[in-house]
Design brief:
Elements (H helix, E strand, L loop, with lengths): L1 E2 L4 E9 L2 E8 L7 E5 L2 H20 L4 H19 L2 H9 L4 E7 L17 H4 L1 E7 L16 E7 L6 H14 L6 E7 L4 H7 L5 E6 L1 E2 L9 E4 L2 E4 H7 L8 E6 L14 H14 L4 E5 L5 H16 L4 H16 L9 E4 L4 E2 L14 H5 L3 H25 L20 H7 L5 H19 L8 H24 L2 H17 L3 H16 L6 H21 L3 H16 L6 H20 L5 H22 L1
Parallel strand pairs: 2-5, 5-6, 7-8, 7-9, 9-13, 13-14
Antiparallel strand pairs: 1-16, 2-3, 3-4, 10-11, 11-12, 14-15
Helix pairs in contact: 1-2, 5-9, 7-8, 9-10, 13-15, 14-16, 15-16, 16-17, 17-18, 18-19, 18-20, 19-21, 20-21
């Protein structure tokens, strides 16, 4: 995470009775000038209502869009004239493009500060703008989240099952952010998203993206929130979760347009509606919150989000990514679409999630840099890449002159990019038995390769394992589309095994939790399902105890193992031994972890003894 405040402007606006206190300063300035101007409250509110009416006219009829855009600019300029002093206007007009943080009084949050127009540009297009809110209310101190590596991300899309475009948006964001798994571990949840799921897992991630409907309850903002499959995840729910584990660092709320509502696209108090939900997250510890001021049509909502995350992945600051996405919306959908104006950031626009150059990119390799290269430099660069490529190909050919990876198997663990289709074919077998056989053989090879020369792993081994991980993810996606929960659970367990061997406990925990959910939702469990579920319970117990120090959940998971196995009428020797090894793993994790809980360790050993008997019965 990076936040260099050297080139950041701070616009402070506070309300004192009927007057505004305004100042514009830089972070490193020891003094700044504060000015006092009259606040024409009624006039400002009327101008904001005029903007809302112009937006609804633009969405209702494309005719006359040019004239409405001119009216929008004039209204923005009137707000600019009334809300800022002459000194502040001059400094803003002369300032080079940089980051601008608007620190605004809570009573002034309804004003669209990003739309102030100086005669040439809107503030949100000239600057990378973020908001901070000043309040006189007592704000509780909550735990702050520290970004880890890999950065964990949760994408929630189409929770009520009526937004296919939101699902497509989620998959496109996943494909972009998941390109470098050493930096980002992405989890995705599509359709049938319940209140319990959000309450359980929201705080497990560094970044959360929500693409779905939002509900605003007039007269009671505490009931407003996300529309999920079984209810509203409301402001009240967020407040109840406050004070425990840290909330995500970054939240992106992409509110999609609902075909079932009779409300106008833009309500008069759109700013307050957006701030109401985001404010609940901000008070709970979210540091960066991006939201929409009204419901966005599917195509531009998807395009904006994908462009935003593409730039975030390149190491660009959040504010710059937001500004660049606005400009792209203007190029693709036109000024009159007003999509560029729909997004607002509460937080520091100068923060970059990947300050070391982004996902899979070298430092500073932003697309604009490449445009500055001269043709002769590009030719030299291309020739150098060609020579290095030929050299690397020669070495690879020499090392693997006797090895040819099979197109339809995992033998040798050599799945190159050219054989990606073969990898996908191999993880989509015709039966459960062949899938398990392939996965077990695959995991044995992974163990051999990973631990052959501990602890170092070559880049080639990591690449091969990454290709297999992609294969499992493709299998999971295909299984979920076809509704085959058993295959989906198998693919998730395969992912979890790889994550665990790579010591990525957070990603492993998420994968095992997904497998548990898939198995738990089966209509009936056969013996193989019960053995699988018992293994998942054991792995999750160890991970919850060590990675999250959540001993209560770990004990609950341990207590499920016995009842799960008791329903097996025909025990299997191999499966029982596999469960036993997983429970032994959980016991070792719990007993040797940095946060030892003696009661839990004792309970884990009791469960281990309970599992030994079915294992012996299976052997007999």
């Amino acid at each position: 995470m990076m936040s260099d405040q050297a080139h950041v402007l701070f616009l402070d606006v506070s309300l004192k009775h009927d007057r505004l206190m305004i100042s514009l300063s830089e972070q490193n300035s020891p003094f700044y000038q504060s000015e006092e101007i009259v606040y024409p409250c009624d006039q400002i509110q009327q101008l904001c209502r005029n903007l809302s009416a112009l937006l609804n006219q633009a969405f209702g009829s494309p005719a006359g869009s040019f004239g409405r855009m001119q009216e929008f600019q004039k209204t923005g300029q009137l707000l600019y004239d009334l809300l800022l002093s002459s000194h502040v206007k001059t400094r803003l007009r002369q300032a080079d493009r940089q980051h601008l943080i608007i620190q605004v009084d809570e009573a002034l949050v309804f004003i669209p500060w990003e739309w102030l127009y100086d005669g040439r540009d809107f503030l949100c297009l000239k600057f990378c703008v973020g908001r901070r809110v000043m309040t006189t209310r007592r704000v509780e101190t909550v735990a702050s989240r520290t970004l880890g590596r890999p950065c964990t991300m949760l994408i929630l899309a189409d929770p009520s099952g009526d937004l296919p475009a939101a699902r497509q948006e989620a998959l496109r964001i996943r494909d972009r952010m998941d390109s470098d798994r050493r930096r980002v571990a992405v989890s995705i949840k599509l359709r049938e998203i319940s209140l319990d799921y959000v309450r359980r897992y929201l705080r497990d991630y560094d970044c959360v993206h929500f693409a779905g409907h939002t509900e605003y309850v007039e007269g009671n903002s505490s009931l407003s929130g996300w529309r999920l499959a079984d209810g509203i995840f409301s402001v009240q729910d967020i407040a109840h979760m406050r004070g425990g584990a840290p909330f995500p660092f970054l939240l992106f709320l992409n509110s999609c347009q609902s075909a079932r509502t009779a409300l106008p696209p833009v309500m008069e108090d759109y700013e307050e509606h957006c701030f109401g939900i985001l404010h609940a997250f901000l008070e709970s510890g979210v540091k960066q919150a991006v939201g929409t001021l009204w419901r966005i049509p599917d195509a531009p909502a998807q395009a904006f989000a994908v462009e935003f995350y593409d730039l975030i992945g390149r190491g660009v600051s959040i504010g710059e990514a937001l500004r660049s996405a606005r400009l792209k919306m203007i190029r693709e959908f036109g000024w009159e679409s007003m999509i560029w104006a729909a997004y607002v950031l509460y937080g520091d626009p100068n923060v970059a999630l990947f300050s070391d150059g982004g996902l899979g990119k070298k430092k500073g390799m932003h697309p604009r840099v490449l445009r500055k290269w001269r043709p002769e430099n590009l030719r030299r660069f291309a020739m150098g890449c060609l020579v290095l490529g030929l050299f690397a190909a020669g070495i690879f050919s020499y090392q693997h002159r006797t090895v040819r990876p099979s197109r339809l198997s995992f033998s040798g663990l050599t799945i190159a990019a050219a054989d990606r289709q073969g990898a996908e074919d191999a993880v989509l077998p015709p039966s459960d038995e062949s899938f398990r056989e392939t996965r077990d053989r695959h995991q044995r090879i992974i163990r051999e390769r990973l631990f052959a020369f501990p602890p170092a792993k070559s880049s080639r081994q990591e690449k091969e394992i990454g290709e297999i991980l992609k294969g499992y993810q493709k299998a999971e996606q295909a299984a979920q589309v076809s509704g085959n929960r058993r295959f989906a659970a198998e693919a998730l367990m395969g992912q979890a095994e790889i994550y665990r061997m790579m010591e990525r406990d957070a990603a492993a925990l998420n994968a095992y939790a997904g497998a548990m959910e898939q198995l738990s939702r089966l209509e009936s469990l056969n013996a193989a399902d019960r053995y699988q579920l018992a293994q998942v319970y054991a792995q999750l117990a160890g991970l919850y105890a060590v990675s999250r120090q959540d001993f209560v959940t770990a004990e609950q998971l341990l207590n499920r193992i016995g009842p799960c196995l008791s329903g097996i009428t025909e025990p299997s020797e191999d499966s029982a031994r596999l469960v036993l090894r997983n429970v032994e793993y959980a016991v070792s994790k719990i007993s040797q972890g940095p946060y030892l809980n003696s009661h839990l360790a004792h309970r884990a050993r009791e469960v281990l003894e309970e599992v030994r008997e079915p294992a012996r019965s299976g052997a007999q």
